[in-house]
Design a protein that fits this description.
Structural class of chain A: alpha+beta
Strand content of chain B: 15-25%
Structural class of chain B: alpha/beta
Strand order of the largest sheet of chain A: 2-1-3-4
Number of helices of chain A: 8
Number of helices of chain B: 15
Number of strands of chain A: 4
Largest sheet of chain A: 4 strands, mixed
CATH topology of the largest domain in chain A: Glutaredoxin
Number of strands of chain B: 27
CATH class of the largest domain in chain B: Alpha Beta
CATH architecture of the largest domain in chain B: 3-Layer(aba) Sandwich
Order of helices and strands of chain A: HHHHEHHEEEHH
Strand content of chain A: 5-15%
Radius of gyration of chain B: 27 Å
CATH topology of the largest domain in chain B: Rossmann fold
CATH architecture of the largest domain in chain A: 3-Layer(aba) Sandwich
Oligomer: heterodimer
Helix content of chain B: 10-25%
Largest interface: A-B, 14 and 17 residues
Chain lengths: 175, 621
């Protein structure tokens, strides 16, 4: 998978915002992941060329941060917090429930329909709403297995699911 | 600034790091990540010492500059324990496979553990495992289990070579060294990471399992692969050349050598090498072979063509010049692989002076290909001293990937004109300026470029460095014996070393070859005589800055092999030239008297520098 011209253009505009060209690698990789969902070798090489750094440096940065994906992820990648507050309020059960619901056996595995993947992450800073998860740049709070089912339904394109969620939990939503 | 280290006073310039100050008085502070040619990073924490005044904790000696009146305690109980603890950490995942590790015997991890570490290991937990050894190029193997993550190799690639082919993947305890997308290393500078690695993680595949460091003897010699003249150690065991390593000379190589110098040595030990003079393909004595050659080539004038090797020594060239001024007068002499650049310039730029240049101009040369280690020196000047770099080439070269390097393109064939146009270039208005020039791998007229560069240098007050390609091109040019590029039309041909790319011209009446390996055109030769290699030959090279350096062969030529000067001396006798050199020193004395450029030959080589002071105070808890 390679990058579109507009993403490359955005990447080329990054360096003046930083003291060193290398500082632009992380925001550039963010843009790549935004477009492709993951960092491919071709895309990392394109970033390196666009920023005039070595592909090896880009690779080093990409592998350092676990939030950069080097393997394909689902259309909706769920980051489920499993730190203390969420853990106490049932994060482990949620993770198991999600894995079963989307039909995967391992974290990082993509569901058969390509829609979902899930991974446990460190604290996302919303302990007061534990347990919580982040997906598609949105936080979802006070989760229960039932709420997970509703979310998954919604993402699967089920309009009923969306309606049901709004009626039952007017507070949940963007953060 | 004066400080005391374990009670010994030492005075060093401001800004010196504690590790360097300690080296001067022979106090050993163990280091892994610190290397004197790389920026300090403080990653391994092995150099912990106690400072006063200072915090009540051990501090890293490799990142702390000295201060007036500072007291450093390397052997205080706290410092000793800190270092031993760090070593214990370094060994938690180390496989301890020293008996099968090529680094064993010259391994800092082994030595430091012995001198500074705990005698027994408490680790009972499972250790990290990786696939090993991992070939990361044809010549280098990576063992991630042995790696202590000092990052010397990745930092070298980043800071010195500017080719980040090696990188650290993942983070924390899971970090490991990897090549860019697991592709093999391509760089011509890759071998230096073997020398840099303080453990057995990066080892040479060429030397793998060949010998042990303590089994070998070594000589301080000079590399014969190109005209830079990097200093090397040649390692010998039982009459075989085992390996080549860098020998730091800050004025030339700064401690680095390229892969050509490091790995192109295995032919020396090849059983395929020619060993016996042959006349009409049957074994013959030297006397017969040389008299046959002498009879055929004597007095032929321009009908005789000679091809000489790139790594001919000054002494051999001097003896050949004697023949060319006598019985072989008028012969055509070519040197395959050389540039078209003329003899030495008036205002020579020394390699070490690159460090002090404000602006460096590279004209019509891919420095990485022609003079690899000069390429690293230019990068050092740009990265460490803030030199500005201007490249004048038809295409972009490797320097141009660095931000801030200016590039001037020209139409191929018009390099000299491009040089003259640089006269009012803004970068050249502030000195000192150094100009490096080549002949674009033969695509440009070297003489025209040299003239243009000489004019420009005179106008702006710059110094210049011609980038000769052949090892001793400059030494041979000083003798003025080269007079052609082709042997076409010669009826009598004597090739020494690899012949011209076009091969030996058809229809020669007599062909003699002097070579270390059989080549296809030897079938047509009436006489073939065996040649020695750089590991057996005595003599000297003049490098591209005009410095004369001596070969110190670790091997004796195996009889009936004879050194080059001996063969030329006897060929002179066979040609009727009175010649009675009994040893190479007499040749050197005469050559020095005859040619000012070779005056250094009469000066005996400088004695080896005294060894570093013995490390004091092994500090084992």
């Amino acid at each position: 998978m390679t990058l579109s011209d507009h993403t490359l253009k955005e990447i080329r505009e990054l360096p003046p915002k930083y003291p060193h060209i290398r500082s632009a690698v992380m925001p550039a990789l963010d843009l790549v992941q935004e477009e492709l969902g993951m960092l491919t070798q071709e895309a990392m090489t394109q970033v390196a060329q666009a920023l005039q750094v070595d592909p090896g440096y880009v690779e080093g940065v990409a592998t350092f941060y676990s939030l950069f994906h080097l393997e394909p992820v689902g259309k909706h990648h769920l980051y489920v917090c499993n730190n203390l507050s969420c853990q106490l309020r049932g994060a482990e059960e949620l993770l198991t429930h999600i894995k079963e619901s989307i039909g995967v056996s391992e974290y990082g595995q993509v569901s058969a329909d390509g829609l979902f993947s899930v991974e446990p992450v460190e604290c996302l800073g919303a302990c007061e709403y534990a347990p919580m998860l982040r997906a598609d740049h949105r936080f979802h709070y006070d989760l229960t297995p039932a709420k997970i089912d509703t979310l998954l339904k919604e993402w699967r394109g089920d309009r009923e699911g969306k309606k049901a969620r709004k009626e039952a939990h007017p507070r949940a939503g963007s953060h | 600034m004066t400080l005391t280290i374990d009670g010994h006073a030492v005075t060093v310039p401001k800004g010196t790091l504690i590790v360097e100050a300690a080296k001067l008085i022979g106090v050993e502070i163990p280091v892994f990540c610190y290397h004197h040619k790389l920026d300090p990073v403080g990653a391994c924490r092995l150099c912990l010492v106690e400072l006063s005044p200072g915090p009540p904790r051990a501090q890293t000696a490799c990142t702390t500059p000295v201060a007036e009146g500072m007291t450093v305690r390397v052997t205080s109980p706290m410092a000793v324990k800190s270092r031993a603890d760090i070593l214990e950490f370094e060994l938690t995942n180390h496989p301890l496979d020293c008996p099968v590790c090529d680094k064993g015997g010259e391994c800092p991890l082994q030595d430091f553990t012995y001198r500074h570490g705990y005698p027994v290991s408490r680790v009972q937990e499972p250790r990290l495992h990786f696939a090993k050894p991992l070939p990361i190029s044809d010549r280098i193997a990576l063992d991630r289990e042995r790696c202590v993550l000092c990052y010397r190799c990745t930092r070298y690639y980043d800071e010195v070579a500017w080719e980040q082919e090696l990188t650290t993947n993942q983070r924390g305890v899971q970090s490991y060294i990897a090549t860019q997308f697991d592709q093999p290393l391509q760089s011509v500078f890759s071998g230096n990471i073997i020398d840099l690695c303080p453990v057995g993680a990066l080892t040479s595949r060429v030397w793998r399992f060949q010998s042990r460091p303590w089994d070998m003897d070594h000589t301080a010699s000079v590399c014969s692969r190109c005209a830079v003249g990097c200093n090397v150690n040649l390692w010998e065991r039982r009459g075989e050349l085992m390996r080549v390593t860098a020998r730091e000379n800050v004025e030339i190589d700064d401690g680095w050598i390229c892969d050509r110098g490091r790995f192109e040595y295995t032919h020396v030990n090849s059983p395929e090498r020619l060993a016996q003079p042959r006349v009409q393909r049957r074994p013959a004595a030297w006397e017969e072979a040389l008299s046959r050659i002498a009879a055929a080539i004597k007095g032929r004038g321009p009908r005789l063509g000679l091809s000489i090797p790139a790594d001919i020594t000054n002494e051999e060239a001097f003896l050949l010049a004697r023949l060319l001024n006598g019985p072989l007068r008028g012969a055509r002499v070519v040197m395959p692989g050389r540039t078209s650049l003329p003899g030495p310039p008036a205002n020579q730029l020394a390699i070490k002076d690159l460090d002090g240049c404000r602006t460096i101009v590279v004209v019509a040369a891919d420095v990485r290909a022609d003079a690899p280690i000069v390429n690293l020196r230019v990068k050092k000047a740009v990265a460490k001293s803030g030199a500005r770099l201007l490249t004048v080439n038809p295409e972009l070269i490797d320097f141009d990937r660095h931000p801030g390097v200016e590039h001037v393109a020209y139409e191929p064939g018009h390099a000299a004109a491009a040089v003259r146009k640089l006269f009012d270039h803004p970068l050249l208005q502030e000195g000192p300026v150094g100009i490096l020039y080549g002949d674009s791998a033969g695509a440009e007229d070297g003489a025209a470029i040299a003239t243009a560069v000489a004019w420009l240098a005179k106008e702006i007050g710059a110094k210049v460095m011609p980038l000769y390609r052949a090892t001793n091109e400059r030494g041979v040019l000083a003798l003025g014996i080269l007079n052609g590029d082709s042997l076409d039309g010669c009826e009598y041909v004597f090739t020494w070393g690899q012949a011209l790319a076009g091969g030996v011209p058809k229809g020669v009446r007599f062909l003699a070859c002097w070579d270390d390996f059989a080549r296809p055109y030897h079938d047509r030769a009436q006489v073939v005589i065996p040649a020695v290699t750089f590991a057996e030959d005595q003599g000297s090279y003049t490098n591209l800055e005009g410095r004369v350096q001596f070969l110190v062969p670790p091997l004796q030529p195996k009889p009936p092999l004879r050194q080059g000067w001996e063969v030329l001396q006897d060929l002179g006798l066979a040609l009727g030239l009175g010649s009675d050199y009994l040893g190479i020193f007499q040749v050197q004395r005469d050559a020095a008297a005859a040619y000012p450029a070779l005056a250094a030959l009469a000066v005996p080589p400088a004695p080896a520098p005294p060894p570093a002071p013995v490390a004091m105070g092994a500090a084992r808890p």
